[in-house]
Every structure is written in C-alpha cells, then in structure tokens.
C-alpha cells in the first residue's frame, strides 16, 4: 500500500451504499502534509509533461490542487459550480450531472484563464462516474488548451468514470483506486497500482500494434 | 504599499458598485507564490498565538488557508455552505446572509473537527459586511474552541464588517484594506496599515483606561 492507501485504511470510514468518508483528512478537514505528499507524487507521475496550469473544481479539489501546484510551480484555476450562469464576462460552461445531489450543475471557467497555449493538469479529490471530470475536459477543449493529464486522489474503481477517461486516451493517475468496500467489516480493497500499470502498458502496446495494422 | 496592495493595483479591476475583481490572481485563478507570501505574512502577524487549526469557508478561502497552513504546520477545516442542512452526523451550523447572492445560507462544520482544545485562526479572501465571518466565529464558539485571530486577504474598509469584528475584540489582520475605489479612474485607496495599528493601539489604551475607571 502507498501512503494514501494506508491513510484511507487508518482514517477512512466505509458506509452503506459504497460511500467512503475521508472527511477527517481530505475533504472537510485537510491534512496539509498528506496533501504535500500527494503533490510530490503527482509531480513524479507527470514529470515529463509540459504542465503550465492546474485546473480543479470547487470546493474539495482546491486544497489538493494548490498544494500540488507548488511542485509544478504553476498557477491554479478552479472551476465554479453553479445552477445558474451569472458570472460576468466570457466564460466556458459545461453542463454536468451530479449523482450525489441528483441535479444538473454548470461548471464554469472564465475564458481569460484558459487559452490555446495552456497545458493543463486536471486535479480532483474523487473520481466515480466521472461527470464532473468530463465537464472539466470539455472546458479545456473548448479553450483549445491541452489536457496533459488528470490526477485524482481516490478513484472508485467499481464505477465507470476511470475506465471511460482512460479509454479516451488520457493519462489518468489515481493515487488510490478502491475496487470494493464492505460497510460491515470496514474492509477496503485497493487495485494494485503495479498491475494497473502493466495493464495500461499492455493496452498501449495493443493500441500501437492496432495502429500499425491500420497504417 | 505591501506586496498584496501592489498586486491589487497591478492586476485588480475596479467595477461599478464598489466591486473589486481579483479573479486573475486570488479567487478564480490563484497565484500560488502570492498565496505563499500571504501565508508567511499571516504567520508573522500571528506569531505569538498558539494556533493549532485553520478554519476557512468554501470556496475561495480554501487555497489561501491551505498554503498558509504550511507556515503554521496545522490542518485546515473548511466550512461548507448549503441552503439546506443534509450533512450526516453532528454538525455546527450558523445561518448567514449573503448580500452578493441575496439569500440566506447555512455555514456548516462537522462537530468532530472543532473541539474545546482548538485554537483557531480563521482565514478568508474577502471581508465586507462580515456576515460569513460572524458565522464562522459563532461556529468556533459553539464548539467551545478559541478564536486566536482572523486573517483576511482584502478588507473593504468602507463596509462595516472590519469595524464590528475589531470592536468585538478580535485580532483581525487584513493584508490590504481598501478604503475607496473609483471605477472610472481605476484608482484604489488603501488604508495605511501603520496608521491602522496606531489607532488600534490607541483604542486598546482607551479601553484599558476605561476598564481602569470602571474598576
């Protein structure tokens, strides 16, 4: 287990309905030293990417993104969530569905903060079905900017978001991938990150060979 | 002018209705190096306080609070805003009025994240009428914790929030206090921080002499 998986086992709480509460260290109270370790790990995983901006979404992504930004020496932009659109000036907007709150929200970024010159690392705390993330990707694309990668703290591997985003060809790095949880025993099953990398390498090799076939 | 006032003059935009837009470096796009300077300055101003926790409020306070927390070596808790109260578990709630959005909101913090042992520095990006801040103070008091101080990036000195909070006896440190703005010329008038300190010292002396009279 890596440092984040260890912390989830120590302080996370599994609740009925596949809910994992990490509010004592990640998204209500925030352990800044842990966030700093996460930032260093994101930097390691995206070391070869020409990232010049981090994009996240309010509210719980902001702390992680700001601490990570120190490792990349770049500014952070956070997308705003709103049911209505009333930011003044020109904005990029994506409509996303929230399963948690059973409603549709707008994700909004001021146009002047994303340009075709931007090479963006998207950071968020959780990835489940990936709706918010797809909204952020859509906004980066609307700006003509480049998504260099996506860094997530905790991915719910048993939901479809991660698979969809990886299938789209993005480098998605989740520091902990939860493949299953048991509210009765409190047991949390993590995906082996090494296995994950091997699979990714294999998929990438397959895709290369497919491309070769197509050529 | 200090570093933040200089930045406001350089990149802030004054709009009609006493609106100061600082979204290019503070509360939409965030300059993390600037946030780090602000954190160091908060540490200098609250150096003698036994702070063990920083409390802020979503969304734009979170980045400032997280970077500042590195200078204090403490965790951050961010209060959540909600029109309804549906966090599970026991929470502290304060009702606050939002002048910007013309509505009433609830400010919510999980009870387990604030205890009587906590010595809290409250941090936020803006102080105008002080409603959100009063909600945060109320929550710290509900928990039996101590407000050791309040650190604000930009205070609108022509609104009443700062005066009310200082009159209540709190150490309120605003890195930039805007006493007036002109949307036509773009001119921003800052309060001299030295003058401010002298006045505070004088008031404190008066209050001591008043107390002596009362004794």
From TrEMBL, chains A, B:
Binding site for 5-phospho-alpha-D-ribose 1-diphosphate: 128-132
UniProt KW Protein transport keyword: no
Annotated localization: Cytoplasm
A biological-process GO annotation: purine ribonucleoside salvage
Region of interest: Disordered: 191-215
Enzyme class: transferase
Classification via Pfam families: Pribosyltran
Record-level GO cellular component terms: cytoplasm
Chief localisation class: cytoplasm
Domain Phosphoribosyltransferase: 42-154
Biased composition, class Low complexity, residue ranges: 203-215
PANTHER family: HYPOXANTHINE/GUANINE PHOSPHORIBOSYLTRANSFERASE, XANTHINE PHOSPHORIBOSYLTRANSFERASE
NCBIfam families for this protein: PRK09219.1, XPRTase
Family the UniProt entry places it in: Belongs to the purine/pyrimidine phosphoribosyltransferase family. Xpt subfamily.
Biological role stated in the UniProt entry: Converts the preformed base xanthine, a product of nucleic acid breakdown, to xanthosine 5'-monophosphate (XMP), so it can be reused for RNA or DNA synthesis.
Designated name of the protein: Xanthine phosphoribosyltransferase
Originating species: Candidatus Mediterraneibacter stercoravium
